[in-house]
Amino acid sequence: MAHGIPSQGKVTVTVDEYSSNPTQAFTHYNINQSRFQPPHVHMVDPIPYDTPKPAGHTRFVCVSDTHSRTDGIQMPYGDILLHTGDFTELGLPSEVKKFNDWLDLVSHCKHGRNPNA
């Protein structure tokens, strides 16, 4: 973990003391803060899923680690969907198909793609 410190037009990058040991970093920051949050990272509270998007803005919808549990997710309207992490529990072909079907559903219903295009 690093952050820049401006100094006379130059940026000095300091490296977090735990950057070489992610397990120790997680333990340290998890114990010393109410939720894991590295220094210089500001948490942003999510907005309700049905909040209208301001004109002229691009909305990114970020989800992760759904592990084949996409049923019942209330997806907000957005322009770009980012899914990170695991989308299956076991990596079975049926789970991949289910996830692909879900992506098709949310792209038609929530992200403005014309299913007839």
Automatic annotation (TrEMBL):
Protein source organism: Aotus nancymaae
Record-annotated membrane-spanning stretches: none
The organism's taxonomic lineage, starting at the top: Eukaryota, Metazoa, Chordata, Craniata, Vertebrata
Cross-referenced InterPro entries: Metallo-depent_PP-like (IPR029052), UPF0046_metallophosphoest (IPR051693)
Protein name: Metallophosphoesterase domain containing 2
